[in-house]
Design brief:
With about 650 residues, this protein is of the alpha/beta class.
Length: about 650
């Protein structure tokens, strides 16, 4: 109450209502060492209802989590340069397992964490060496339950029978607009039973004994995840109890005083932490966690001697590093005019990588056959109920959950990817954005990346998606031109430790370019490079392109070159990486004095003006696509070598 009041901003009601739940879980059940908050076998605690951040911050402070929240941070809730932003951010302070706020995302992240635990358990545990066996707890509210991502994630968790997963549903029946009877009257318990969950009920959030019994029941449950419905009163004990006014605004000084009186708390004291309170927390949580952590480290020391190879892999996982020789068998693609879709060459590359990195797992939203993302080597297998060592995840048609679940897997240090069509990146945009905000190396694979998918028409043809992804701070977007640029793109992706990547791949075939005629694909490591034309000669015109349009642009290059025009083609698979290069390198690729510039991309032209300037030309789309064969579409929208060449002539007249 004090923190929200001082900030004059925030959500006091839910932390007030759920204080008994938070206390009980952390004190009696959470296996967590405050002095070692990154201990690999710790239980995970996720606050999906991120606006209730003061609950988490209070728990972290009272538990004395090393390097985490201080009382000074709490006094400066929602202020610059403190560890207590309005919604929890995982990179701000130890103990914040994931960034939450957009409702339902935390619930879906927790499913990914539970998947990662099951995978690590199957991969690394050996007789007499149980390195991994922990639980994942998450708290969400009515808003989380209404969001579709929660339904997708819960359905997947029920199918996978993730008995290491426990959700608490804060059933306070209040949202910003009022009581949930105006919007949300479904039977949540029946819904989750249909998903295959065990459902328990606490009819009073203040009843610690019932909370204890329900968590004990969860810990004994096998073959299914658990939902514990907790009936609570938002703003409990205040005059704003059970009112939406307790949800998203300070209670007011007088209300706070009266509430403290109701609690038996000194009315005029602010940010009071009585003697013995923190000691009480550390006595139970801290001593339990330290004992478990110490035993785990002793076990791990013996494990090192008995399983040195597996130990080395674990060390690499924790550091987000790659094993030696991870790229030793990457395919080499010879020049071939025959069309090879970049989705197919990508599938070959990622299979080679996955054979060398055993903690590289992932799947598709029911499109693995189209996206070419199935891991096919011997032993890859499928991750299914009771088969938690499989490398292929089957997400079903759940794009939104897939993005958030793979975020959760990556937060557990297992490297994960998810794949779907580029058009459906819109379904997982919140998760992509949060991956960038959290600085985790999730891999979003998007195929069917342009109007080149043809007859499926404008409902399935991405136009604005590339520009939207490129607008996300911290996200690396790659659209390779041919099979060899695909190889270079995967080299970039796998080396990322703190940035997610979006890989855009073609459905239609693109020729594997003759690199004796054109410059090496290794230039892709710089984000953009001169692929055709003498880099030492200042050209009359620069043609820029990405993906499948690079081959078209090279055909235009040959036409213009035969006419005696000095032309340069620049392949730009990643604008973000190009922007990180030195100014001298960028100027060498795109000489500032050359104003005749043309961009070519089968997507919206938005954003290309930065590189073409006021006097340049952008060849792309300003409308939606159409349903027609590929060649007809490219002709209709002006994406042909002859029209590119004519645009160049017009610019240099």
């Amino acid at each position: 109450m004090d923190a929200v009041q001082k900030a004059n901003s925030g959500h006091p009601g839910t932390p007030m209502a759920l204080a008994p739940l938070g206390y009980t879980l952390w004190q009696n059940f959470l296996n967590y060492d405050p002095q070692d908050p990154n201990w690999p076998n710790r239980d995970r605690f996720v606050l999906s209802v991120g606006h209730a951040s003061m609950l988490l911050y209070s728990l972290l402070f009272l538990s004395g989590v090393k390097g985490s929240i201080t009382l000074e941070d709490i006094r400066n809730f929602r202020q610059l340069k403190y560890k207590t932003p309005g919604h929890p951010e995982n990179h701000v302070a130890p103990g914040i397992e994931t960034t939450t706020g957009p409702l339902g995302q935390g619930f879906a992240n927790s499913v990914g964490m539970a998947i990662a635990e099951r995978y690590l358990e199957q991969k690394f545990n050996r007789p007499d060496f149980e390195l991994f066996r922990h639980n994942v707890y998450a708290i969400g509210g009515d808003g989380c339950m209404m969001e579709g991502v929660t339904s997708e994630a819960a359905s997947l968790a029920g199918h996978l029978k993730l008995s290491n997963l426990c959700w608490f549903y804060d059933n306070n029946q209040i949202t910003i607009d009022g009581n949930t009877k105006i919007t949300f009257t479904e039977d949540v318990a029946l819904r989750f039973k249909a998903y295959g969950w065990s459902v328990l009920h606490v009819d009073d959030a203040n009843d610690i004994n019932k909370i204890n019994r329900c968590i004990e029941t969860f810990q004994k449950t096998v073959g299914m995840p658990t939902l514990i419905i907790v009936d609570s009163h938002i703003g409990w004990g205040s005059s704003k109890q059970d009112k939406s006014a307790a949800h998203g605004e300070p209670l007011g000084e007088e209300v706070i005083k009266a509430t403290k009186k109701f609690y038996g708390w000194p009315e005029n004291e602010k940010f009071l932490v009585p003697n013995g309170v923190r000691e009480n927390f550390t006595e139970k949580l801290g001593s339990r966690g330290q004992k478990l952590n110490r035993a785990w480290k002793e076990l791990y020391s013996a494990y090192k001697e008995n399983h040195p190879g597996l130990t080395r892999e674990l060390e690499l996982i924790e550091k987000r590093e790659l094993p030696e020789g991870w790229d030793k068998d990457l395919p080499e693609f010879k020049a071939d005019p025959k069309a090879l879709p970049t989705r197919e060459s990508s599938g070959l590359v990622m299979n080679a990588i996955a054979e060398n990195i055993s903690w590289f797992i992932g799947g598709s939203a029911d499109l693995a056959v189209s996206a070419k993302t199935t891991l096919k080597f011997e032993g890859a297998g499928s991750f299914e109920p009771g088969q938690y060592d499989g490398r292929n995840l089957h997400f079903g048609i759940r794009e939104h959950a897939m993005g958030a679940v793979t975020n959760g897997i990556n937060l557990s240090k297992v490297r994960a990817y998810g794949s779907t069509f580029l058009i459906f990146s819109d379904y997982q945009k919140p998760a992509v954005r949060l991956a960038a905000l959290m600085e985790i190396p999730n891999i979003f694979i998007y195929t069917h990346d342009s109007i080149g998918l043809g007859e499926d028409g404008p409902t399935h043809q991405p136009i604005e998606q590339l520009a939207g992804l490129r607008a996300i701070p911290g996200l690396i977007v790659l659209r390779p031109a041919d099979a060899n640029e695909v190889v270079e793109s995967w080299k970039i992706i796998m080396r990322l430790q703190h940035q997610p990547a979006a890989l855009a791949l073609s459905r239609q075939g693109t020729p594997t370019l003759d690199r004796t005629k054109y410059h090496s694909a290794k230039g892709a490591a710089h984000g953009a490079y001169v692929i055709a034309g003498d880099p030492e000669i200042i050209p009359d015109v620069i043609l820029m392109a990405t993906g499948s349009e690079v081959a078209l642009t090279l055909e235009a290059y040959e036409i213009l070159k035969s006419e005696g025009i000095k032309v340069r083609v620049v392949s730009m698979p990643s604008l973000e990486i190009f922007e990180k290069q030195s100014q001298s390198y960028r100027d060498k690729v795109l000489p500032p004095g050359v104003l005749a510039r043309i961009s070519v991309e089968a997507s919206t032209t938005l954003g290309w003006q930065k590189y073409t300037g006021l006097k340049g030309r952008n060849i792309g789309l300003t409308t939606f696509g159409a349903s027609a064969p590929l060649k007809d579409l490219y002709e209709h929208f002006g994406l042909t070598p002859s029209k590119i060449a004519q645009a160049a002539r017009d610019l240099i007249k």
